[in-house]
Amino acid sequence: MYTIISGTNRVGSNTLKVAKLYQQLLQKKGIEANLLSLANINLLVRDAAFEKIENEFLIPTSKFLFITPEYNGSFPGALKMLIDTSKSNGIWANKKALLTGVSTGRAGNLRGMEHLAGVLNYLKITVLPNLLPISVINSLMDENGQLHDENTFQVINQQIDQFINWA
């Protein structure tokens, strides 16, 4: 099972738009992927609602796609809280992950993806080596989430194909 995690709790973010694009592209390739947005989720408390997220999204997933914005040279604290609040040992180990960074700046969250890769490796998740930074996302995508840059579209498709075929 595939799950895409939109790694911010900001409502209406570019990150969620990119995550939805990944979901659409996977669907065109015949793969149904869940989409977990961290917006409007209480990540501070391990309650019944949080355990429902674990049981529906995290535990059954074998391949995660993390779409993360750049927050202060790293990845968002909301994503770290998701990981920290979860039952780390029973959820994350021996799974695979794809990382895509999103920013309005020029680095595409390269540093944040490296930080996240380190955390995921610590949790025994194998990370696809092709980390994809998407820079100046605000000029590549419109307010409806339509990507208007053919080169970015191609590299996203290449990354997804690598992830699908990664044994």
Protein described:
The chain is of the alpha/beta class. It has one domain (2-165): Rossmann fold (3-Layer(aba) Sandwich), CATH 3.40.50.360. The chain has seven helices and six strands, in the order βαβαβααβαββαα. It has helices spanning 14-28, 48-58, 77-85, 88-91, 110-122, 137-140, 150-165, and strands at 2-6, 33-37, 63-69, 96-102, 126-127, 132-134. The longest helix has 16 residues, at 150-165. The chain is globular and about 40 Å long. The chain starts with a strand and ends with a helix.
Q: What is the chain-wise order of helices and strands?
A: EHEHEHHEHEEHH
Radius of gyration: 15 Å
User: What characterizes the major β-sheet?
Assistant: 6 strands, parallel
Corresponding CATH superfamily:
Flavodoxin domain
What is the fold named in CATH at topology level? Rossmann fold
CATH class: Alpha Beta
Spatial gap, N to C terminus: 14 Å
Oligomer: single chain
Structural class: alpha/beta
Strand content: 15-25%
If you average the pLDDT, what whole number results? 95
* Residue windows where pLDDT falls under 50 for at least 5 positions: none
- What's the number of structural domains? 1
The coarse overall form would be globular
- Helix fraction bin: 40-55%
Strands, total number: 6
Which second-level CATH architecture applies? Answer: 3-Layer(aba) Sandwich
Task: Please tally the helical runs, counting DSSP H or I stretches of 4 or more residues.
Answer: 7
